[in-house]
């Protein structure tokens, strides 16, 4: 009896080790393209097409220097930062206010507002690009930061997450604070938001990553090279760089650095944001 | 009391004001404009005249529109179910691991999700480069000759699909992981006591309990992938765009390259109807499931 059990145990363990090994290999394969891009970015141009060693033989930062010194990358970085930070701040602030109002206050049109948010959640915003372009061109905001930011402020998911989060907080908090004579603004900014900064950080990070990475609208709205965001700019120089893969890939590494750092620093928050925003669908 | 009521109304008004202004301006107004534009022959910028259903008639006869619908559907078929299956597999593998090893492995699978689309494009363009690409060895092994993946029609959509799965799967993986964590460990312990094999545990315990998450992933993916543009546009630049045309790309082409604002609005409305139909269907399916 004890013998059969121990052999069975051993067999299970062997299976477990094998599965773990397979997982490690799969992860390495999955991550390889990212690694290979990083490896190529530190090779000299004449080596990118010759040196296939896994570790670059003679790593160099000339490609990065080239990008920073001679391309428009610094401008694009600035534009991306301005756009992504503005979108994040405005979306989070606006969503918290709206989510709070819908969750805690009674006002006429509340139901209609909620339905509009749910509707915009289902509508493909990319179908509206032509009309966004007409509007932004009409108010002379093409090739400006404001013009890039405006259509990106449609973010129903953040409003819905805030509304549901505020719905879930105990009623007593609000009642007690109202008794003490707090105004609605004090309630929101001193009580409801600080009670869980986690939700706000999670939503902010995921909004930042989304804004930094967005392509289609910034690509249409910023056609002047100086106004492009990093994501759009990298595509624009692609042909100019030709076979200079080292330069191209070092640009790619730089372009993804802020979002990669945001993820690595706030892994748990990113995970939380994704499960929160999916939770509303289920 | 009356004072209170009035201050509540005032506060609500101030709180929702920025949102209402932006939504009115950037969502409601453009949506109405899109419908209006679809009945005109307007250029991209400027007024056109009312042409009735002419654009709609043209759209249903348009071979490129049909091609775009077909390619979009083909892309959806190549990504949604296979992508979700791969995500579940990866989540099952990752969920077995513990501690720091799990974090590292999860990061390896998740990181592509946060990359900008152009970075994804640059990386894979390099990986598949017909002369120097890392993957040409494997491609040659399958095809018997070097293939320029992005210039070869039968390879194009499957190629973009593989890259899209690689790129966007992090989201589904996280959802599955969250779902797997919610399965009580006692169920597995009980199954183990009954002498269940790994496979039985999966089919009898994991699969039925993870099914709702699967439905969720499938519908999110479906609605997301119907809106494909970025990858197809980037990989097809300089290539035969008509053959690889997808719906959003056709909207873009008609508006910005052919200067046909009215017709592009008609196509946009078609996409709109397709996505909303699937969203509503999904909503109904989830509601039916919720009622049971």
Automatic annotation (TrEMBL), chain A:
PROSITE patterns in the record: ABC_TM1 (PS50928)
The protein, known as: Carbohydrate ABC transporter permease
Family note: Belongs to the binding-protein-dependent transport system permease family.
GO biological process: transmembrane transport
InterPro entries in alphabetical order: MetI-like (IPR000515), MetI-like_sf (IPR035906)
Signal peptide (UniProt feature, chain positions): none
GO cellular component: plasma membrane
Pfam families listed in its UniProt record: BPD_transp_1 (PF00528)
Source organism phylogeny: Bacteria, Pseudomonadati, Pseudomonadota, Alphaproteobacteria, Rhodobacterales
Sequence intervals crossing the membrane: 12-36, 75-101, 113-142, 148-166, 187-212, 248-266
Domain ABC transmembrane type-1 as annotated: residue spans: 77-266
Membrane topology type: Multi-pass membrane protein
Keyword entries, A-Z: Cell membrane, Membrane, Transmembrane, Transmembrane helix, Transport
Compartments (UniProt record): Cell membrane
UniProtKB/TrEMBL annotation, chain B:
PANTHER family: ABC TRANSPORTER PERMEASE PROTEIN, DIACETYLCHITOBIOSE UPTAKE SYSTEM PERMEASE PROTEIN NGCF
Annotated compartments: Cell membrane
GO cellular component: plasma membrane
Keywords: Cell membrane, Membrane, Transmembrane, Transmembrane helix, Transport
A GO biological process held by the record: transmembrane transport
Spans traversing the lipid bilayer: 9-28, 68-92, 104-124, 155-180, 201-224, 263-286
Pfam families in alphabetical order: BPD_transp_1
Family the UniProt entry places it in: Belongs to the binding-protein-dependent transport system permease family.
Gene3D superfamilies hit by this protein: MetI-like
Full protein name: Sugar ABC transporter permease
Primary site of residence: membrane
PROSITE patterns in alphabetical order: ABC_TM1 (PS50928)
Organism expressing this protein natively: Neotabrizicola shimadae
Membrane topology: Multi-pass membrane protein
Domain ABC transmembrane type-1 as annotated: residue spans: 69-282
């Amino acid at each position: 009896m004890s013998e059969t059990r121990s052999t069975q145990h051993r067999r299970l363990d062997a299976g477990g080790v094998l599965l773990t090994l397979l997982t490690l290999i799969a992860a390495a394969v999955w991550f390889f393209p990212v690694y290979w891009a990083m490896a190529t970015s530190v090779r000299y141009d004449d080596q990118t097409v010759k040196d296939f060693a896994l570790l670059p033989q003679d790593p160099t930062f000339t490609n990065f220097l080239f990008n920073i010194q001679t391309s428009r990358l610094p401008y694009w970085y600035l534009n991306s930062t301005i756009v992504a930070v503005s979108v994040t701040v405005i979306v989070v602030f606006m969503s918290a206010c709206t989510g709070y109002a819908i969750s805690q206050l009674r006002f006429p049109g509340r139901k209609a507002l909620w339905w509009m948010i749910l509707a915009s959640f289902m509508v493909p915003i990319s179908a509206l690009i032509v009309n966004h372009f007409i509007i932004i061109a009409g108010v002379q905001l093409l090739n400006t930061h404001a013009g890039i930011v405006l259509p990106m402020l449609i973010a129903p998911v953040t409003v819905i997450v805030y509304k549901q989060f505020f719905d879930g907080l105990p009623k007593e908090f609000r009642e007690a604070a109202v008794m003490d004579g707090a105004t609605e603004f004090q309630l929101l900014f001193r009580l409801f938001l600080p009670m869980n900064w986690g939700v706000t950080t999670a939503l902010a990070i995921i909004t930042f990553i989304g804004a930094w990475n967005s392509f289609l609208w910034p690509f249409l709205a910023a056609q002047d090279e100086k106004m492009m965001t990093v994501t759009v700019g990298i595509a624009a120089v692609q042909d100019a760089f030709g076979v200079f893969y080292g330069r191209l890939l070092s640009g790619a590494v730089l372009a993804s650095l802020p979002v990669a750092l945001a993820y690595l620093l706030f892994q748990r928050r990113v995970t939380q944001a994704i499960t929160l925003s999916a939770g509303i669908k289920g | 009391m009356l004072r209170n009521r009035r201050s509540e109304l005032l506060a609500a008004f101030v709180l929702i004001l920025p949102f209402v202004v932006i939504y009115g301006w950037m969502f409601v107004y453009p949506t109405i404009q899109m419908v209006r534009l679809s009945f005109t022959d307007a250029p991209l910028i400027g007024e056109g005249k009312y042409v009735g259903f002419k654009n709609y008639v043209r759209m249903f006869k348009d071979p490129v529109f049909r091609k775009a619908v077909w390619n979009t559907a083909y892309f959806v078929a190549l990504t949604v179910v296979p992508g979700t299956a791969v995500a579940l597999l990866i989540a099952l593998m990752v969920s077995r691991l513990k501690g720091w090893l799990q974090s590292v492995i999860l990061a390896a699978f998740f990181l592509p999700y946060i990359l900008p689309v152009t970075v994804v494009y640059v990386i894979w363009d390099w990986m598949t480069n017909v002369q120097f690409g890392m993957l040409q060895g494997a491609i040659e092994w399958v095809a018997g000759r070097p293939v320029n993946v992005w210039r070869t029609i039968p390879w194009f959509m499957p190629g973009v699909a593989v890259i899209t799965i690689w790129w966007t799967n992090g989201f589904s993986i996280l959802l599955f992981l969250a779902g797997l964590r919610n399965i009580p460990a006692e169920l597995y312990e009980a199954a183990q006591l009954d002498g269940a094999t790994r496979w039985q545990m999966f089919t009898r315990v994991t699969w039925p309990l993870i099914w709702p998450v699967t439905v969720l992933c499938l519908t999110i993916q479906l609605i997301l992938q119907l809106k494909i543009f970025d990858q197809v546009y980037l990989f097809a630049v300089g290539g035969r765009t008509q053959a690889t045309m997808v719906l959003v790309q056709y909207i873009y082409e008609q508006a910005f390259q052919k200067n046909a604002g009215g017709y592009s609005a008609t196509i946009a409305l078609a996409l709109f109807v397709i996505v909303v139909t699937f969203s509503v269907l999904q909503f109904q399916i989830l509601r039916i499931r919720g009622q049971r």
